Amino acid sequence: MSTTPQYDAIIIGAGIAGMYQLYRLRELGLKVRVFEHGSDVGGTWYWNRYPGCRFDSESYTYGYSWSKELLQEWNWKEHFSPQPDTMEYLDLVARKFDLRKDITFNARVSKATYDEAANEWEIETENGERARARFLITAVGVLSATQMPRIPGVDKFKGISFHTSRWPKDEKGFGGKDIGMKGKRVGVIGTGATGVQLIQEAAKVAGHLTVFQLAPEFCAPLRNAPITDDEMAHIKENYPEIFKKCRESSAGFMHNFVMKSVFEVSDEEREAFFEYLYNRPGFEKWLGNYVDTMIDPRANALLTDFMARKIRSRVKDPVLAEKLIPKNHGFGMRRVPMDTNYYEVYNQDNVTLVDLRETPIETITEKGVKTSDKEHELDILIYATGFDAVTGSFTRIDITGVGGKKLKDKWADGPVTYLGIGGHDFPNFLTLVGPHNGATFCNIPRCIEQNVEWVSDLMKYMRDKKLTRIEPTVKAENEWTEHVAESSQNSLFTKTDSWFMGVNINMPEKKRAFLLYAGGAPAYKAKCDEVAAKGYEGFEVR
Ligand code: NA7
């Protein structure tokens, strides 16, 4: 008899999605085990501990909405929560709902194989541990497969060096370790949302900070502030309205596009509205703008011009300002990093921008970074070079479905999925926030809750009806994959290269394909609800 532990469901990952899925399946009375690579819960917030790491979502729209008690118990300290506070919150959730007892930590799942005869999945961790379950649910995150740059010599540097998502832990708290940047020569490679957050903090303390920029992003002010006791009391009273607003918005935020064209208003009115949004907190200047700024290139050009003028007004040296203004994409066509004083950092004497388009990196050396014109000597070198986005957290696991078919091969030309929640030849395999899922372009916990609740209802349905196997049909997954492509056609996201499009300079082998779902969270939820109401239409269930 096999000694491999047996469960009703195995969940991979103990981040926001995995923690809630565990709770819901346990409530159904299922025997569940979570396998988590890290040594604790938290997912993204466990791994990303670099200084400056924080939400770009309003904190009170980000927390779980499913426990009224938790909503009343927890006090957010800032409008955009810093990583240590978020980890403290997730620690509270884990303790309050006693989640850790069903999680195996330090256990990276490296292999998952569907056993057709038994109609079960078997997983194997890097440590060689195995487990079996009828259902395999992935909660592996969209941005968790760390991607180092493919630059010669990355292992040569003798100083302190790591990727931002591997920042060491502060053993006494919830945040990252103080690695001693004070007074040191610090280098940061990468200027995406992560690099922008880190650079602002490093510039405060480094003796000298050198930023290696390949191509700039359009950053916009976050306008964070502490939450007063009165504000928190008001938030607690208004949670139902806050979550309702998020549910009704296209991306799960409190912001929604203004259903008006930039061309319907006068130049003065448009400029005044752009200015108003620029002074508002969070993503409102992106996701609360005139609707055509994200669809019509001419409308986007007006907003882009406004944002470029803002950068010019914030950077003293006009030549440097031009280097910081993106010329290859318009505002909001790629993920917008949120800043506090990012552009002002470049007015400081202790900060240098190295434009890698002018002087590319040739190699990393023992002492620092050698660009085509000189060697930049450093004590600390941080890689803020991003992730193998969305699909990477799947393809880095050896996942085998029916007849030995590999998920990696199925997705070789871009993902093929049904609802971003599963695929043909992979029965009983459910991908929370998988590629093409509505949760991918969303204030993520809002859409995670929809995903988890839908999967939990499915589990209950199957149990009540004594069904044991569910698999999307080829027709359904082809139709959904086409719908994903069609619904992104109008959006400007597809008109430039970014991780949304699966483009990664360090992974030339990755095919260009839209990895998210741009049809909006309400439309996605409506479709999932319709599928369930029709007895899980598009799936073969038996
Ligand atoms: P991103 O947004 O993928 O940014 C990575 C950055 O690193 C970006 O500026 C890249 O330039 C740069 N990069 C990558 N490889 C290299 C090499 N080889 N040389 C120089 N520069 C390089 O990742 P983040 O971690 O900042 O953010 C990820 C998401 O996390 C973010 O969108 C939020 O949703 C949270 P490039 O863009 O290719 O010009």
Present as ligands are:
ligand NA7
What is the count of β-strands? Answer: 20
Provide the β-strand percentage band. 15-25%
Assembly type = single chain
What general outline do the C-alpha atoms trace? globular
What is Rg? 23 Å
Range of helix content: 25-40%
Distance between the termini: 27 Å
Task: Give the helix tally.
Answer: 17
* Secondary structure category: alpha/beta
Mean pLDDT value: 97
Q: State the major sheet.
A: 8 strands, mixed
* Low-pLDDT segments: none
Description:
With 542 residues, the protein is of the alpha/beta class. It is built from 17 helices and 20 strands. Strands 1, 2, 3, 4, 5, 6, 17 and 18 form an 8-stranded mixed sheet that branches. Strand 5 (120-125) and strand 6 (130-138) form a beta hairpin. The longest helix is centred in the C-terminal third of the chain and has 21 residues, at 444-464. The protein is globular. The relative contact order is 0.14.
Can you tag this structure with a few keywords?
5-stranded parallel β-sheet, 542 residues, alpha/beta, 8-stranded mixed β-sheet
Topology (elements, then pairings):
Blueprint: E1 6-12, H1 16-27, E2 32-35, H2 44-47, H3 59-62, H4 68-73, H5 83-96, E3 103-104, E4 109-115, E5 120-125, E6 130-138, E7 160-163, E8 185-189, H6 193-205, E9 208-213, E10 220-221, H7 229-248, H8 267-278, H9 284-287, H10 297-314, H11 318-324, E11 338-339, H12 342-345, E12 351-355, E13 361-364, E14 368-371, E15 375-377, E16 380-383, H13 392-395, E17 398-400, H14 407-410, E18 429-431, H15 444-464, E19 470-472, H16 474-489, H17 521-533, E20 539-541
Parallel strand pairs: 1-2, 1-6, 2-3, 4-17, 6-18, 7-16, 8-9, 8-16, 9-12, 10-11
Antiparallel strand pairs: 4-5, 5-6, 13-14, 14-15, 19-20
Bound molecules: ligand NA7.
